[in-house]
Amino acid sequence: MSTREIRIYQDLMGQNEVWARKTRDVIAQKRLFMINLIGAPGSGKTTLVENMVSHLAGTLRFAVLEGDVATTRDAERLDALNVRVSQLLSGGACHLEAKLVHAALIDFALDELDLIIVENVGNMVCPAEFDIGEHAKIAVLSVTEGEDKPLKYPLLFREAKAVVITKLDLLPHLTFDLQACRDNIRKVNAGIPVFEVAAKRNEGIDAWIKWLATQRRAVAESATVT
Amino acid sequence: MSTREIRIYQDLMGQNEVWARKTRDVIAQKRLFMINLIGAPGSGKTTLVENMVSHLAGTLRFAVLEGDVATTRDAERLDALNVRVSQLLSGGACHLEAKLVHAALIDFALDELDLIIVENVGNMVCPAEFDIGEHAKIAVLSVTEGEDKPLKYPLLFREAKAVVITKLDLLPHLTFDLQACRDNIRKVNAGIPVFEVAAKRNEGIDAWIKWLATQRRAVAESATVT
Do B126 and B95 meet the contact criterion of CB atoms below 8 Å apart? Predict the structure, then answer.
């Protein structure tokens, strides 16, 4: 039997898992809570983060990783609000991979943070399939998209730890059935928390921030115990 | 409501280009014009097709291939309008592949048709990368998604032969800048035709249908010459 060392190369998914685990280790050590916002293009992910800024002040110190296929527009929007933000460009890819997220994450001053917000590429399908080491995928769905989307894109809603329904201020102008949407979400993922916000009117954000603070506290406390 | 049975096709593996070419051959021979509607989840693709039904009557005979990750809801919506429609289920995949489209296409009575409408899986990224043998990819963008999307998802707008901007009836309730959106589309693809519709108010559909009729005529005439 040979004693030569055999080099082993993992496939792309396997390689992704290695970097996701590195990120999980870092955020556990630093007691950070990390979320991965996933939703269609234009579902209101960046506007939600913009609106969270003032609500997070004094509650959670945070940084944002903005994922996009192209442009730095979203990072610029948050930079204008003095948010710690880096732009992740996917190079044409339809989702963020763990290695890129990790590289950007460790360049933040992590000891000064409680929460990492990743905004994935606008896409309800592919980002749900990729582990980036986060604690929680968050499904972001706007009321303009229709109440059937949780059934049509079930993986995202099954993988998510919470759902944020956005743009509730537009409800009077739509035929969107909010209760049917809640029911469809629960058909795919019974018991998942659902937050309903109108970011442009600053409504509904508090409950969502409170949930994040609770999650972060749980992470910090479990890190203290072990 | 119709009681006809809706055909369901599940994903099959194959070499995409080979099947795209087979489809191109079939639609050339049958003098069909074939479009591939691509846009985000909830961008209004199915509503656009629903609204086209009455306008196409007497102008173009058509059939629809409805692409989705899961459910047969969109095919059911069109079946209720007595549209010739089959449902393509991508089996979790984020786009339609050419083999699945071909298998469904050739089961229609093609001699009775002028136009094939494919509605791709709701996703602005991946479907733009796949040739399904169509004449024209059509980008569908709703005003609720923001005027920056052509810059953030440039491949789709570069590959497309036309853009349909939807939900214009919601403009008074949004901060969407329509002229900036047109400018952004032209930055990526100068000279591309842009149609602006409010399908729920039945506005703007005629120009779009007229463009389709012109394209179909060109296909039929070029087939006659050769």
Answer: yes
Q: Note down the domain range covering B99.
A: 14-216
Q: Is B5 within the bounds of a domain?
A: no
pTM (two decimals): 0.91
Q: Kindly identify which residue of chain A lies nearest to residue B155, measuring between CA atoms.
A: A92
CATH, residue B154: 3.40.50.300
Sheet holding A162-166, edge to edge: A84-89, A62-68, A115-119, A33-39, A136-142, A162-166, A194-196
Q: Are strands A136-142 and A33-39 parallel, antiparallel or unpaired?
A: parallel
Task: Decide if B72 touches A, using CB distance below 8 A.
Answer: no
Q: Which long-range contacts (CB under 8 A, 24 or more apart) does A77-81 make?
A: A77/A46, A77/A50, A78/A46, A78/A49, A78/A50, A78/A53, A81/A50, A81/A53
* Closest C-alpha among A186, A184, A144 to residue A166: A144
State whether residue B80 sits within 8 Å of chain A by CB: no
Place of tokens 């870092």: A26
H-run or E-run covering A26: helix A12-29
Assigned domain for B52 exists: yes
- % of chain B residues with pLDDT over 70: 94
Structure confidence by residue, pLDDT tens digits, B94-131:
999 999 999 999 999 999 999 999 999 999 999 999 99
Nearest CA in chain B to A145: B42
**ipTM surpasses 0.85:** yes
pLDDT in tens, A34-49: 999 999 999 999 999 9
Q: Phi, psi (5° rounding) for residue B7?
A: -70, 140
Flag whether residue B122 sits within 8 Å of chain A, measured between CB atoms: yes
Note whether residue A74 is domain-resident: yes
Facing residue for B123 by CB, picked from A125, A154, A170: A125
Give helix A205-225 / helix A45-56 axis angle, nearest 10°.
70
Q: Which residues of chain B does A124 touch, with a Cβ-Cβ cutoff of 8 Å?
A: 41, 122-123
Residue B104 belongs to a domain: yes
For residue B51, give the amino acid letter: N
Q: Distance between CA atoms of A168 and A145, rounded to whole angstroms? A: 12
Provide, as residue numbers in chain B, all residues whose Cβ is less than 8 Å from the Cβ of A93: 125
Q: Tell whether A143 lies on the interface with B, counting CB pairs under 8 A.
A: no
Number of domains in chain A: 1
